[in-house]
Amino acid sequence: MSRFEKLCSSDLLKTFERKSLLRAFPGKKQFEIDNFADNENIYGPSPSVMVSIQNSLTAISHYPDAEALPLKQKLSEFLAIPEKNIVIGNGAMDLIRQILICAGEPNQNVLLSKGSFIQFKVACEILNFSFKEVDLNNSQVDLKEIAENIDKDTRFVFFSNPNNPTGTVVGRQTIKEFLEKVPDETYVIIDEAYIEYTDSYPENSALSFLQDHRNLIVLRSFSKIFGLPGLRIGYALLNSEFASCLNKVLVPFSVNCIAQTAALAALEDLPHIEGIREENFIERRWLFEKLKNLGLQVQPSQANFLFVGVHPLNEKTVFEVLKDHGVLVKSLTGYGFSNHHRISILDRKRNEKLIEAYKKALRQLGFDK
């Protein structure tokens, strides 16, 4: 089978092929959909970000800064990390693929946490990397088991912290002990897209281990708490040698000038970010209790989403009924969870609508507590 035929026939790529939300809700505009599926920041970016975008529109007649230097300098100040250890990319998904291209070798494998961020698997499938999945332990990434599965051919280990879609967090001490067991030639890539939502941020980040572990790569995003998913911008934090190589293989000018300007402005308004953290904490606790009161199984979360079990019902059936009631949640059958949804935490008005939709769906399916 040719490479082209393999990709076209891949069950994994078919399952996670991106499709327009408008197909599921014909007649609606995208922003009219009650979307609890994509973990977006419902409050949006800082008002100063919108102003900066307006003021920078004339820049679109020029190519963007090739390495996003002003943003890199700001991140260096914000994170207390040298510029040479920062790479800006067109979102974390782009960086994941480029990292695999940059450092992967034939016949090497990738270790993943099962039931984790699906784009790790998708990147491996597209780039022809074999991968092995390690089961979660009580909905949490099992670093002990992952360490025991590393072999001489393991080039990369991927996991998310907080884990997506379960919302659980691995503590700093556990990560530290894990890194000490990993061979130097195996890269550990930790996706911290949701780290700012956690209760103990920034203390629970892996950033402090970068200096002692040259094989550690931390990914961050501007798509979540900073509210810029439509602009596609993220960054990697890694050793300077790898950063230099990664900069060479990135698609030239892949981070557009508006995205660079917006991300820079977002870092200037930290009170806005803190306000979002507080609102998410309040709504997360409220939504957790309301869903539990419906008889659903809800995993405590450290992110802006909840991992919700609908057992004994099939999640796809509940998903379709919720959609009929105008609410879109994340189906997790493709992740290996046949009885779970992932639900984004939005504002109170929308969260109340979600609860009402679940009540109607459960009643309709004969599961009424």
The CATH class name of the largest domain reads Alpha Beta
Bin the helical content: 25-40%
Tell me how many strands there are: 12
Instruction: Name the CATH superfamily assignment of the largest domain.
Output: Type I PLP-dependent aspartate aminotransferase-like (Major domain)
Structural class: alpha/beta
For the residues shown, what is the average pLDDT? 94
Shape verdict? globular
Task: Indicate the radius of gyration in whole angstroms.
Answer: 21 Å
Gap between N and C termini, in Å?
52 Å
The H/E string reads HHHEHHEHEHEHEHEEEHHHEEHEEH
What would you note in describing this structure?
This protein is of the alpha/beta class and 369 residues long. It folds into two domains: 3-44 and 271-364, Aspartate Aminotransferase, domain 1, CATH 3.90.1150; 47-269, Type I PLP-dependent aspartate aminotransferase-like (Major domain) (Aspartate Aminotransferase, domain 2, 3-Layer(aba) Sandwich), CATH 3.40.640. The chain has 14 helices and twelve strands. The strands form two sheets. It has a seven-stranded mixed β-sheet with strand order 2-8-7-6-5-3-4, sandwiched between helices. Strands 1-11-12-10-9 form a five-stranded mixed β-sheet. Strand 5, helix 9 and strand 6 form a beta-alpha-beta unit. Helix 5 (69-79) packs parallel to helix 11, helix 6 crosses helix 7 and helix 12 runs parallel beside helix 14 (348-364). It is globular. The N and C termini lie far apart (52 Å). The mean pLDDT is 94.
